[in-house]
Specification:
CATH superfamily of the largest domain: Vaccinia Virus protein VP39
Strand order of the largest sheet: 9-8-7-10-11-13-12-14-17
Number of helices: 23
CATH topology of the largest domain: Rossmann fold
Strand content: 5-15%
Helix content: 25-40%
Number of domains: 4
Largest sheet: 9 strands, mixed
Number of strands: 17
CATH class of the largest domain: Alpha Beta
Distance between the termini: 93 Å
Structural class: alpha/beta
């Protein structure tokens, strides 16, 4: 405890007392942590080291490092990441707090820590908490003025609100339960009385519980409508068992998932016997899902994103908040096309920062697994090579469930705001492939939410030379305003555009979006003589069928192969299909902008043109306008 920091130490101690938090100065009364601190010297030589204050509140390790002046609050490197060299760890409060918390988590059985970097004095100060879970780098939390949120009484609520970014139970009870959605699937429309976003959570939770049937820990016959141990409680127990069996980590993620699934247990209507059904709605849903969905997910090895399709149907029938939030789920055939365009290899690391229900990651996983030759390769793909971020908590839960049900890959999904992440920090993941379907039309609300901003953020977050593939509205490629035009210039300056594929206008049937796929190479400035491909793939072999939606025709596979052959330079195509050209940032990066007709007319077309001309000349003569065709007529 440095002499000049005594006043700060005393002030912090008063704050702790005020919040009724008991921490140990210069050590820890908990033996396991005390042992860990014996090798926690900041110089990294394995000697003893102590933070200003340390202890445990419930199952959270609390670490505090303080400095006397605000200029010693934290030190970031040029990439905006905390410096962890011994010099900075010693000199800066937040750097030191992070160092100690990480060391404790590594050396003990504790899984969650909240570390505080504090600088200044009672009048002018910074109290900056960060959260560590032992796996992720850290989560920077909002600055605070006291420790009241971190005492025994309040810390769980703080964890739920600020770290899990979820609703507390009190908040859930105050939310309006939406009316039964018109024209929703019968099994959810009539009996649950659930909000739109809760419906897919009930579905995914039941599917996790059904997995426990394989281990004898769950049976549909157990759902008897008992009032003492409800059907929801039985399903929640099975969910918890399955998340543990799936080894979902870190603990933050497991807690977040359980928190989302709580509606299954806490919604009375789901657990009461319905007089029409003669059973609880939960049992009805479970029977239906087992017979109609679960078997398909468990035993079908295609890349079909079943939960994603299921969720998409909820939104299309309910008129829910999906389109308001810009949520447009990617069809399975587009996810597969992404995997093919990326030419995925077994050593690629795939990153989707707006992963929705996990469709791109599932398609990538299956593509890579097909190429894997050893069990070790396959395990590594599932465990380490699929990364995703999703902002909406319920979508994150569905994505994680989807990955578990489809063969792992869930470990590296996080619930966070991609645009608020440091791209330099994300680049440390070493992602070699980026895939994204960002929220649409949000730029009208705030310019920084435009699709181009998401694209630039993703490119900046990838490894050098990484392939980046995105699906966005065609208007995103035009640069609708000065803000977007500047982003295009930045992308052109720092990354390379490989090409843009204009898609079928019905790709997102019912949404009213005309999409395109843009492909980039990250961190390689666009050469002025670079030749890009602009493809018109509107005729993709998918058509809209009445009462069904977008369906695949027999020609779809052939058309897709043609696209891939042209894209990979295996064959050449007319400009009607593909224009190859250099580009400028001010151009509209679309086939329609660069298209010119380079086709030589056929003999039939030539004869038709001549016939049309002669017909026109005859009509003019009949209408006494033959002078238009006299040789001496000069209209110049």
């Amino acid at each position: 405890m440095a002499k000049k920091e005594i006043n700060t130490d005393l002030w912090v101690n008063e704050l702790l007392k005020e919040a009724d938090i008991q921490l140990t100065p210069q050590g820890c009364e908990i033996k396991e942590i005390e042992e860990a601190l014996k090798t926690a010297s900041k110089n990294g030589k394995g000697n003893v080291g102590f933070p200003e204050y340390c202890g445990v509140v419930k199952d959270f390790v609390i670490v505090i490092e303080d400095k006397a002046t605000i200029d010693k609050q934290e030190k970031l490197n040029e990439k905006g990441i905390l410096e962890l060299n011994p010099k900075e760890v010693k000199e800066y409060a937040l750097n030191g707090a992070y160092f100690y918390a990480k060391h404790i988590l590594e050396k003990t059985n504790y899984k969650k820590a909240i570390a505080f970097g504090i600088s200044g004095d009672e009048k002018r100060h910074i109290i900056q908490p960060i959260y560590l879970d032992g796996r992720e780098y850290f989560m920077r939390l909002p600055q605070v003025e006291s420790f009241i949120s971190f005492n025994v009484e309040n810390i769980d609520e703080y964890y739920t609100r600020e770290i899990l970014k979820d609703f507390t139970e009190d908040e859930k009870t105050t939310k309006e339960i939406v009316k039964d959605a018109e024209e929703l699937h019968e099994y959810l429309r009539n009996y649950g009385n659930l909000r739109d976003q809760e419906k897919p959570l009930v579905v995914s939770g039941i599917l996790l519980a059904l997995r426990e049937m394989e281990y004898g820990n769950f049976s549909i016959d157990l759902l008897t409508g008992d009032n003492t141990k409800t059907d929801g409680k039985k399903i929640m127990d099975a969910i918890d068992d399955n998340l543990r069996r799936a080894r979902v980590s870190p603990e933050t993620k497991k807690d977040k998932l359980v928190n989302q699934f709580k509606i299954i247990e806490d919604t009375p209507k789901l657990n009461e016997t319905d007089p029409v059904l003669g059973k609880t709605p939960l049992k009805y849903y479970t029977e239906f899902l087992y017979n109609r969905l679960y078997k398909s997910i468990r035993y079908n090895r295609t890349s079909e994103d079943y939960l994603g399709r299921f969720y998409g149907e909820f939104m299309s029938y309910s008129g829910g908040d999906g389109q308001t939030l810009g949520i447009v789920l990617t069809p399975k055939h587009i996810c597969d096309l992404f995997a093919d365009l990326a030419d995925l290899q077994t050593d690629d690391l795939v990153f989707d920062p707006c992963c929705g229900t996990g469709g791109f990651l599932i398609a990538a996983m299956h593509k890579m697994l097909k190429k894997a030759k050893t069990d070790s390769e396959r395990k590594n793909i599932r465990t380490n090579q699929l990364h995703g971020i999703e902002l909406q908590p319920y979508m994150f839960t569905i994505a994680t469930t989807n990955m578990i049900l489809r063969g792992d890959g869930k470990s590296n999904l996080t619930c966070d705001d991609f645009l608020k992440k440091n791209p330099n920090e994300l680049q440390l993941k070493g992602a070699t492939v980026g895939m994204m379907n960002p929220p649409y039309s949000q730029g009208k609300k705030s310019p920084e939410l435009c699709e181009l901003n998401f694209i630039e953020q993703l490119l900046d977050s990838l490894a050098e030379g990484a392939r980046c593939i995105v699906i966005v509205p065609q208007s995103s490629m035009t640069g609708k305003n000065n803000y977007e035009k500047n982003i295009k210039k930045n992308i052109y300056k720092n990354h390379t555009l490989e090409g843009v594929i204009t898609l079928n206008t019905n790709t997102f049937y019912g949404v009213g979006t005309n999409p395109c796929i843009a492909v980039f190479t990250a961190h390689e400035p666009h050469p002025s003589d670079k030749v890009c491909k602009f493809i018109n793939f509107e005729d993709d072999g998918y058509v809209v069928q009445k009462h069904v939606g977008l369906v695949e025709t027999e020609s779809a596979k052939d058309k897709k192969q043609h696209l891939l052959d042209v894209w990979k330079d295996k064959i050449k195509a007319t400009t009607k299909f593909c224009v190859e050209t250099t580009v400028e940032p001010d151009d509209e990066w679309l086939h329609s902008f660069y298209y010119f007709n380079d086709e030589i007319p056929s003999e039939e077309e030539f004869e038709k043109t001549i016939a049309d001309y002669l017909t026109f000349e005859f009509n003019m003569i009949v209408h006494k306008k033959g002078q238009l065709f006299r040789k001496d007529n000069n209209n110049e």
